[in-house]
Amino acid sequence: MLACAGVTTNGVRPESVFAVRPTVRHERLDDEVIAIDLESGAYFALDDVAAVCWSILAAGGTATAAVEATVAGFDVAPEAARRDVEEFVGELIRVGLLAPVDGPSERAALPAMPRQSHAYKPPAIERFDDLEELLVLDPIHEVDEAGWPATPVDT
What we know:
alpha+beta
């Protein structure tokens, strides 16, 4: 296999910046993130390590920043964390929750991630499609051009 310097096996560059896709709404609740893709109707649960990584990536952080937070917050070797986080980022892109951003990003301050008491397990995405039909067919999606739910206005 031919490898390129600075590129992971799934094509994710460690210093790449990502953006949450415009059709995705997300919220962090303690140690879990819930994300809904309003276009597909699928919703996703990310917990523990996945929630830490998502919080950093969604705030404009890099895969490297997510790896560093994972190593600082959980009992895991840096190489294992790097491999797991890079695979996770590739999966977030594949399922359509994140998209790479071209060029540097004007990112907000990254959230502080306290040391976790949970045992380390590689970050993973749980996908649920049981509300897909309800979300896609819900007439409230057609309220106005802003859509629903309304995204907070950037300040």
